[in-house]
């Protein structure tokens, strides 16, 4: 993980001035069954898209609160990172997309019996949303419906 000292000056300034949102209490629901019996959904926040999907538009003034849905059967290496920001080093992601969309790791966990199954659809988001109201009002409920339809018991959120 990058430390503040390693970040470029303009990123440090942004982080120091960002109006962080606090959720208190943190919404949490305990799993209803062991992970070894659970269907796991996956949400990634790295602006990843399938090659045939439109890119995210993270550089727009209000940023992009939309989502992209990809099949959980997809090869993570075929996904495209559509965020060009410099808040993290993209080299690792270019060598192994599982750093941000760990579908291969979930498949290994399923094969080992550590999880019961993988939800058939994965959700990709752009994580940088300084104005999250559209996400809260529209995107988040749509994601909840999608995973309910897919029978997900738990959902893993992978921040970027």
Keywords:
alpha/beta; 18% strand; four-stranded mixed β-sheet; 160 residues; two-stranded antiparallel sheet; 6 strands
Total number of helices: 4
One letter per element, helices H and strands E, the order comes to HEEEEHHEHE
- Portion in helices: 25-40%
Q: Report the biggest beta sheet as strand number plus sense, adding barrel if it closes.
A: 4 strands, mixed
Low-confidence sequence ranges: none
Average pLDDT: 86
What is the 3D shape?
Answer: globular
Coarse structural class: alpha/beta
What is the alpha-carbon Rg in Å? Answer: 16 Å
* Strand proportion: 15-25%
Whole-number tally of structural domains: 1
Topology, number of strands:
6
Q: What is the end-to-end distance?
A: 10 Å
For the largest beta sheet, what order do the strands appear in spatially?
3-5-1-6
Outline the structure in words.
This protein has one domain. It contains 4 helices and 6 strands; from the N terminus they run αββββααβαβ. The strands form 2 sheets. Strands 3-5-1-6 form a 4-stranded mixed sheet, sandwiched between helices. Strands 2-4 form a two-stranded antiparallel sheet. The chain is of the alpha/beta class and 160 residues long.
Summarize the structure.
The protein is 25% helix and 18% strand. The protein has four helices and six strands, in the order H-E-E-E-E-H-H-E-H-E. The model has no long low-confidence stretch (mean pLDDT 86).
